[in-house]
Amino acid sequence: MNGIPDRVGVMKTITFAVPCYNSEQFMAKCLDSLLACASSDVEIIIVNDGSTDATEDIALGYARDGGGIVSVINQENRGHGGAINSALRVAQGKYFKVIDSDDFVEEAACHELLDALRTLDIDLAITNYVYEKQGKKRKKVIHYENCLPQRRILTWDDVGRFGVGQYLLMHALTYRTAVLRDCGLELPEHTFYVDNLFAYVPMPQVRTLYYLNVDFYRYSIGVEGQSVAEKTMLKRIDQQIAVNQAMFSHVDIDAVDNVKQRDCLLHYLEIITSVTLILLVLAHTPEADVKREQMWAYIEKGYPTQYEFLCHGFPSRLLRNPGRVGRAVAVGMYQVARGLYGFN
Protein backbone atom coordinates (compact mmCIF):
# COMPACT_ATOMS: atom_id res chain seq x y z
CA MET A 1 0.00 0.00 0.00
CA ASN A 2 1.56 3.26 -1.16
CA GLY A 3 0.66 6.91 -0.97
CA ILE A 4 -1.53 6.46 2.11
CA PRO A 5 -1.80 9.52 4.38
CA ASP A 6 -1.61 8.97 8.13
CA ARG A 7 -4.76 7.07 9.11
CA VAL A 8 -5.76 8.27 12.56
CA GLY A 9 -8.87 6.13 12.85
CA VAL A 10 -11.36 9.00 12.65
CA MET A 11 -14.40 8.02 10.66
CA LYS A 12 -14.93 10.00 7.48
CA THR A 13 -18.34 10.81 6.04
CA ILE A 14 -17.67 8.88 2.84
CA THR A 15 -15.09 6.78 1.07
CA PHE A 16 -14.94 7.12 -2.71
CA ALA A 17 -13.27 4.01 -4.12
CA VAL A 18 -11.78 4.48 -7.61
CA PRO A 19 -10.64 1.20 -9.21
CA CYS A 20 -8.05 1.88 -11.93
CA TYR A 21 -6.60 -0.40 -14.55
CA ASN A 22 -4.56 1.26 -17.29
CA SER A 23 -6.57 4.41 -16.69
CA GLU A 24 -3.98 7.05 -17.59
CA GLN A 25 -6.12 8.59 -20.33
CA PHE A 26 -9.22 9.38 -18.26
CA MET A 27 -8.62 9.02 -14.52
CA ALA A 28 -7.72 12.72 -14.07
CA LYS A 29 -11.23 13.79 -15.08
CA CYS A 30 -12.71 11.37 -12.56
CA LEU A 31 -10.41 12.39 -9.70
CA ASP A 32 -10.67 16.12 -10.41
CA SER A 33 -14.46 15.88 -10.26
CA LEU A 34 -14.25 14.25 -6.82
CA LEU A 35 -11.65 16.66 -5.46
CA ALA A 36 -13.77 19.61 -6.60
CA CYS A 37 -16.33 18.77 -3.93
CA ALA A 38 -14.17 16.96 -1.35
CA SER A 39 -13.23 18.21 2.10
CA SER A 40 -11.47 16.79 5.14
CA ASP A 41 -14.32 14.37 5.98
CA VAL A 42 -13.97 12.67 2.57
CA GLU A 43 -11.45 10.04 1.57
CA ILE A 44 -10.63 8.96 -1.96
CA ILE A 45 -8.95 5.57 -2.33
CA ILE A 46 -7.41 4.93 -5.73
CA VAL A 47 -6.79 1.23 -6.33
CA ASN A 48 -4.14 0.71 -8.98
CA ASP A 49 -5.06 -2.80 -10.09
CA GLY A 50 -1.83 -3.96 -11.70
CA SER A 51 -1.74 -1.27 -14.39
CA THR A 52 1.07 -1.34 -16.94
CA ASP A 53 0.77 2.29 -18.03
CA ALA A 54 1.26 5.52 -16.06
CA THR A 55 -1.73 4.94 -13.75
CA GLU A 56 0.46 4.40 -10.66
CA ASP A 57 2.46 7.59 -11.19
CA ILE A 58 -0.68 9.64 -11.75
CA ALA A 59 -2.33 8.13 -8.68
CA LEU A 60 0.68 8.84 -6.47
CA GLY A 61 0.73 12.40 -7.76
CA TYR A 62 -2.86 12.88 -6.65
CA ALA A 63 -2.03 11.36 -3.26
CA ARG A 64 0.91 13.72 -2.87
CA ASP A 65 -1.06 16.83 -3.85
CA GLY A 66 -4.47 15.82 -2.49
CA GLY A 67 -4.21 17.45 0.92
CA GLY A 68 -4.38 14.16 2.83
CA ILE A 69 -7.68 13.16 1.21
CA VAL A 70 -6.32 10.82 -1.47
CA SER A 71 -4.60 7.49 -0.84
CA VAL A 72 -3.38 4.77 -3.18
CA ILE A 73 -3.43 0.99 -3.04
CA ASN A 74 -1.06 -0.70 -5.49
CA GLN A 75 -1.82 -4.37 -6.06
CA GLU A 76 -1.39 -7.17 -8.57
CA ASN A 77 -4.23 -7.34 -11.04
CA ARG A 78 -7.36 -8.80 -9.43
CA GLY A 79 -10.05 -7.26 -11.60
CA HIS A 80 -12.78 -4.79 -10.76
CA GLY A 81 -14.13 -6.87 -7.91
CA GLY A 82 -10.71 -7.37 -6.36
CA ALA A 83 -10.08 -3.62 -6.46
CA ILE A 84 -13.37 -2.85 -4.72
CA ASN A 85 -12.66 -5.53 -2.10
CA SER A 86 -9.30 -3.93 -1.31
CA ALA A 87 -10.78 -0.46 -0.89
CA LEU A 88 -13.64 -1.75 1.26
CA ARG A 89 -11.25 -3.47 3.67
CA VAL A 90 -9.51 -0.21 4.61
CA ALA A 91 -12.34 2.31 4.07
CA GLN A 92 -12.84 4.76 6.93
CA GLY A 93 -15.99 6.37 5.57
CA LYS A 94 -19.37 5.87 7.17
CA TYR A 95 -20.62 5.52 3.59
CA PHE A 96 -18.96 3.85 0.60
CA LYS A 97 -19.29 4.77 -3.06
CA VAL A 98 -17.57 3.25 -6.11
CA ILE A 99 -16.63 5.63 -8.91
CA ASP A 100 -15.20 3.90 -11.97
CA SER A 101 -12.13 5.67 -13.31
CA ASP A 102 -13.65 6.38 -16.74
CA ASP A 103 -16.68 8.05 -15.14
CA PHE A 104 -17.03 11.29 -13.20
CA VAL A 105 -19.40 13.12 -10.85
CA GLU A 106 -21.29 16.39 -11.16
CA GLU A 107 -19.90 18.91 -8.68
CA ALA A 108 -23.10 20.59 -7.45
CA ALA A 109 -24.83 17.22 -7.04
CA CYS A 110 -21.82 15.89 -5.16
CA HIS A 111 -21.97 18.80 -2.70
CA GLU A 112 -25.68 18.08 -2.13
CA LEU A 113 -25.04 14.40 -1.52
CA LEU A 114 -22.22 15.11 0.94
CA ASP A 115 -24.30 17.70 2.81
CA ALA A 116 -27.11 15.16 3.16
CA LEU A 117 -24.87 12.30 4.29
CA ARG A 118 -23.28 14.46 6.99
CA THR A 119 -26.64 14.68 8.77
CA LEU A 120 -28.22 11.31 7.92
CA ASP A 121 -28.08 7.88 9.51
CA ILE A 122 -29.31 5.54 6.77
CA ASP A 123 -28.39 2.26 5.08
CA LEU A 124 -28.61 3.43 1.48
CA ALA A 125 -28.62 6.75 -0.36
CA ILE A 126 -29.91 6.81 -3.93
CA THR A 127 -29.07 9.43 -6.56
CA ASN A 128 -29.59 9.68 -10.32
CA TYR A 129 -27.08 8.62 -12.93
CA VAL A 130 -26.65 9.87 -16.49
CA TYR A 131 -25.65 7.85 -19.57
CA GLU A 132 -22.79 9.94 -20.98
CA LYS A 133 -22.92 8.33 -24.42
CA GLN A 134 -20.05 9.48 -26.61
CA GLY A 135 -21.20 11.59 -29.53
CA LYS A 136 -24.75 11.89 -28.23
CA LYS A 137 -25.91 15.39 -27.29
CA ARG A 138 -29.03 14.35 -25.41
CA LYS A 139 -28.08 12.32 -22.35
CA LYS A 140 -30.45 9.81 -20.77
CA VAL A 141 -30.99 10.40 -17.03
CA ILE A 142 -32.13 7.52 -14.84
CA HIS A 143 -34.12 8.98 -11.98
CA TYR A 144 -36.54 7.58 -9.39
CA GLU A 145 -38.90 10.45 -8.60
CA ASN A 146 -41.93 8.40 -9.64
CA CYS A 147 -41.24 5.62 -7.12
CA LEU A 148 -39.17 7.15 -4.31
CA PRO A 149 -40.32 10.08 -2.13
CA GLN A 150 -37.61 12.70 -2.01
CA ARG A 151 -35.40 14.09 0.76
CA ARG A 152 -36.76 12.11 3.67
CA ILE A 153 -35.75 8.88 5.34
CA LEU A 154 -37.72 6.00 3.85
CA THR A 155 -38.48 2.41 4.66
CA TRP A 156 -39.40 -0.13 2.00
CA ASP A 157 -43.07 0.47 2.74
CA ASP A 158 -42.63 3.97 1.25
CA VAL A 159 -41.21 2.67 -2.02
CA GLY A 160 -43.34 2.60 -5.17
CA ARG A 161 -43.07 0.38 -8.24
CA PHE A 162 -39.96 0.65 -10.37
CA GLY A 163 -40.44 1.07 -14.10
CA VAL A 164 -38.77 -0.84 -16.93
CA GLY A 165 -35.09 0.02 -17.06
CA GLN A 166 -35.36 1.73 -13.68
CA TYR A 167 -33.35 -0.46 -11.38
CA LEU A 168 -30.86 0.36 -8.65
CA LEU A 169 -27.64 0.09 -10.61
CA MET A 170 -24.39 0.48 -8.67
CA HIS A 171 -23.96 4.00 -10.05
CA ALA A 172 -27.11 5.11 -8.21
CA LEU A 173 -26.13 3.67 -4.83
CA THR A 174 -24.16 4.90 -1.84
CA TYR A 175 -24.22 2.20 0.84
CA ARG A 176 -23.49 2.50 4.52
CA THR A 177 -20.10 0.82 4.77
CA ALA A 178 -21.27 -1.37 7.65
CA VAL A 179 -24.05 -2.82 5.45
CA LEU A 180 -21.48 -3.98 2.90
CA ARG A 181 -19.28 -5.51 5.57
CA ASP A 182 -22.07 -7.07 7.60
CA CYS A 183 -23.47 -8.92 4.57
CA GLY A 184 -20.02 -10.41 3.97
CA LEU A 185 -19.64 -8.84 0.54
CA GLU A 186 -16.63 -10.30 -1.25
CA LEU A 187 -16.74 -9.76 -5.00
CA PRO A 188 -15.27 -12.32 -7.41
CA GLU A 189 -11.83 -11.45 -8.74
CA HIS A 190 -10.88 -11.42 -12.43
CA THR A 191 -14.55 -11.21 -13.34
CA PHE A 192 -16.47 -8.56 -15.21
CA TYR A 193 -20.00 -7.33 -14.38
CA VAL A 194 -19.55 -7.71 -10.61
CA ASP A 195 -21.16 -4.29 -10.17
CA ASN A 196 -24.47 -6.17 -10.25
CA LEU A 197 -23.40 -8.20 -7.21
CA PHE A 198 -22.26 -5.03 -5.45
CA ALA A 199 -25.71 -3.53 -5.94
CA TYR A 200 -27.78 -6.66 -5.35
CA VAL A 201 -26.19 -8.76 -2.59
CA PRO A 202 -26.30 -6.13 0.22
CA MET A 203 -29.85 -4.99 -0.63
CA PRO A 204 -31.65 -7.42 1.75
CA GLN A 205 -29.74 -5.81 4.65
CA VAL A 206 -31.11 -2.36 3.84
CA ARG A 207 -33.78 -1.04 6.19
CA THR A 208 -33.64 2.73 5.60
CA LEU A 209 -33.24 4.62 2.33
CA TYR A 210 -32.96 8.23 1.20
CA TYR A 211 -33.51 9.53 -2.33
CA LEU A 212 -31.79 12.69 -3.48
CA ASN A 213 -33.08 13.69 -6.92
CA VAL A 214 -29.79 15.01 -8.33
CA ASP A 215 -27.81 13.89 -11.39
CA PHE A 216 -24.74 12.84 -9.44
CA TYR A 217 -23.05 10.07 -11.43
CA ARG A 218 -21.98 10.54 -15.04
CA TYR A 219 -21.67 7.09 -16.60
CA SER A 220 -19.36 7.21 -19.62
CA ILE A 221 -20.43 4.76 -22.29
CA GLY A 222 -19.96 4.07 -25.97
CA VAL A 223 -16.17 3.69 -25.82
CA GLU A 224 -14.77 0.93 -28.01
CA GLY A 225 -13.72 -2.10 -25.98
CA GLN A 226 -15.72 -1.21 -22.85
CA SER A 227 -16.87 -4.20 -20.84
CA VAL A 228 -20.51 -3.21 -21.47
CA ALA A 229 -20.09 -2.89 -25.25
CA GLU A 230 -22.26 -5.46 -27.04
CA LYS A 231 -19.38 -7.22 -28.84
CA THR A 232 -17.40 -7.41 -25.61
CA MET A 233 -20.34 -8.77 -23.63
CA LEU A 234 -20.91 -11.47 -26.24
CA LYS A 235 -17.26 -12.52 -25.93
CA ARG A 236 -17.57 -12.58 -22.13
CA ILE A 237 -20.99 -14.15 -21.94
CA ASP A 238 -19.74 -16.87 -19.58
CA GLN A 239 -18.80 -14.18 -17.04
CA GLN A 240 -22.20 -12.54 -17.44
CA ILE A 241 -23.84 -15.92 -16.79
CA ALA A 242 -21.61 -16.56 -13.74
CA VAL A 243 -22.48 -13.21 -12.17
CA ASN A 244 -26.16 -13.67 -12.99
CA GLN A 245 -26.20 -17.08 -11.33
CA ALA A 246 -24.34 -15.68 -8.31
CA MET A 247 -27.17 -13.19 -7.88
CA PHE A 248 -29.52 -16.14 -7.44
CA SER A 249 -27.25 -18.08 -5.10
CA HIS A 250 -26.13 -15.19 -2.87
CA VAL A 251 -29.57 -13.88 -1.93
CA ASP A 252 -32.27 -15.98 -0.27
CA ILE A 253 -35.27 -14.23 -1.74
CA ASP A 254 -37.71 -16.27 0.39
CA ALA A 255 -36.09 -14.86 3.55
CA VAL A 256 -36.92 -11.27 2.54
CA ASP A 257 -40.08 -10.48 4.51
CA ASN A 258 -40.99 -7.07 3.13
CA VAL A 259 -43.04 -7.46 -0.06
CA LYS A 260 -41.80 -4.24 -1.66
CA GLN A 261 -38.19 -5.05 -0.89
CA ARG A 262 -38.64 -8.50 -2.39
CA ASP A 263 -40.31 -7.00 -5.48
CA CYS A 264 -37.36 -4.62 -5.93
CA LEU A 265 -34.91 -7.53 -5.78
CA LEU A 266 -36.96 -9.61 -8.21
CA HIS A 267 -37.26 -6.66 -10.58
CA TYR A 268 -33.47 -6.22 -10.63
CA LEU A 269 -32.98 -9.96 -11.09
CA GLU A 270 -35.42 -10.01 -14.01
CA ILE A 271 -33.55 -7.20 -15.79
CA ILE A 272 -30.13 -8.82 -15.44
CA THR A 273 -31.47 -12.26 -16.38
CA SER A 274 -33.16 -10.74 -19.43
CA VAL A 275 -29.84 -9.17 -20.43
CA THR A 276 -28.16 -12.57 -20.17
CA LEU A 277 -30.87 -14.28 -22.19
CA ILE A 278 -31.04 -11.63 -24.89
CA LEU A 279 -27.26 -11.76 -25.35
CA LEU A 280 -27.56 -15.49 -25.88
CA VAL A 281 -30.34 -14.86 -28.41
CA LEU A 282 -28.17 -12.25 -30.18
CA ALA A 283 -25.28 -14.73 -30.32
CA HIS A 284 -27.59 -17.08 -32.27
CA THR A 285 -25.30 -20.11 -32.16
CA PRO A 286 -26.03 -23.71 -31.13
CA GLU A 287 -23.69 -23.25 -28.17
CA ALA A 288 -25.56 -20.13 -27.05
CA ASP A 289 -28.88 -21.94 -27.34
CA VAL A 290 -27.56 -24.70 -25.07
CA LYS A 291 -26.38 -22.13 -22.53
CA ARG A 292 -29.79 -20.46 -22.60
CA GLU A 293 -31.51 -23.77 -21.83
CA GLN A 294 -28.96 -24.48 -19.09
CA MET A 295 -29.66 -21.08 -17.55
CA TRP A 296 -33.38 -21.81 -17.39
CA ALA A 297 -32.71 -25.29 -15.94
CA TYR A 298 -30.45 -23.73 -13.27
CA ILE A 299 -33.20 -21.33 -12.21
CA GLU A 300 -36.05 -23.86 -12.34
CA LYS A 301 -34.18 -26.47 -10.32
CA GLY A 302 -32.74 -24.27 -7.60
CA TYR A 303 -34.89 -21.16 -7.28
CA PRO A 304 -38.64 -21.82 -7.63
CA THR A 305 -39.75 -18.39 -6.37
CA GLN A 306 -37.57 -16.57 -8.86
CA TYR A 307 -38.48 -19.03 -11.61
CA GLU A 308 -42.19 -18.44 -11.14
CA PHE A 309 -41.67 -14.67 -11.16
CA LEU A 310 -39.59 -14.80 -14.36
CA CYS A 311 -42.08 -17.08 -16.10
CA HIS A 312 -44.80 -14.47 -15.58
CA GLY A 313 -42.67 -11.59 -16.85
CA PHE A 314 -42.99 -10.73 -20.54
CA PRO A 315 -39.25 -10.27 -21.31
CA SER A 316 -38.17 -13.56 -19.76
CA ARG A 317 -41.16 -15.46 -21.10
CA LEU A 318 -40.42 -14.20 -24.61
CA LEU A 319 -36.79 -15.30 -24.30
CA ARG A 320 -37.55 -18.81 -23.01
CA ASN A 321 -38.18 -20.38 -26.42
CA PRO A 322 -38.03 -17.46 -28.83
CA GLY A 323 -38.20 -19.14 -32.24
CA ARG A 324 -37.81 -17.02 -35.37
CA VAL A 325 -40.55 -14.53 -34.53
CA GLY A 326 -39.53 -14.34 -30.89
CA ARG A 327 -35.92 -13.69 -31.85
CA ALA A 328 -37.00 -10.83 -34.11
CA VAL A 329 -39.16 -9.32 -31.37
CA ALA A 330 -36.43 -9.74 -28.77
CA VAL A 331 -33.80 -8.10 -30.98
CA GLY A 332 -36.25 -5.29 -31.78
CA MET A 333 -36.90 -4.69 -28.07
CA TYR A 334 -33.16 -4.65 -27.43
CA GLN A 335 -32.55 -2.10 -30.17
CA VAL A 336 -35.35 0.15 -28.89
CA ALA A 337 -33.96 -0.02 -25.35
CA ARG A 338 -30.45 0.71 -26.64
CA GLY A 339 -31.77 3.76 -28.47
CA LEU A 340 -33.69 5.02 -25.44
CA TYR A 341 -31.00 4.54 -22.83
CA GLY A 342 -27.86 4.97 -24.91
CA PHE A 343 -26.07 1.83 -23.70
CA ASN A 344 -23.77 -0.39 -25.78
Keywords:
344 residues, alpha/beta, Spore Coat Polysaccharide Biosynthesis Protein SpsA, Chain A, 2 domains, ten-stranded mixed sheet, 10 strands, 18% strand
Layout of helices and strands:
Layout (H helix, E strand, L loop, with lengths): L11 E9 L6 H9 L6 E8 L5 H11 L4 E6 L3 H12 L2 E6 L5 E2 L1 H11 L6 E10 L6 E3 L10 E2 L18 E4 H6 L12 H6 L8 E13 L8 H6 L1 H14 L8 H25 L2 H17 L1 H9 L1 H7 L2 H19 L3
Parallel strand pairs: 1-2, 1-4, 2-3, 6-10
Antiparallel strand pairs: 4-9, 5-10, 6-7, 6-9, 8-10
Helix pairs in contact: 8-9, 9-10, 9-12, 10-11
How is this structure best described in words?
The protein has 344 residues and is an alpha/beta fold. The chain folds into 2 domains: 12-221, Spore Coat Polysaccharide Biosynthesis Protein SpsA, Chain A, CATH 3.90.550.10; 230-341. Helix content is 44%, strand content 18%. It is built from 13 helices and 10 strands. The protein has helices at residues 27-35, 55-65, 79-90, 107-117, 177-182, 195-200, 230-235, 237-250, 259-283, 286-302, 304-312, 314-320, 323-341; strands at residues 12-20, 42-49, 70-75, 93-98, 104-105, 124-133, 140-142, 153-154, 173-176, 209-221. Strands 1, 2, 3, 4, 5, 6, 7, 8, 9 and 10 form a 10-stranded mixed β-sheet that branches. Strand 6 and strand 7 (140-142) form a beta hairpin. Helix 8 runs antiparallel to helix 9, helix 9 packs antiparallel against helix 10 and helix 10 (286-302) packs across helix 11. The protein is globular and about 60 Å long. The two termini are 35 Å apart.
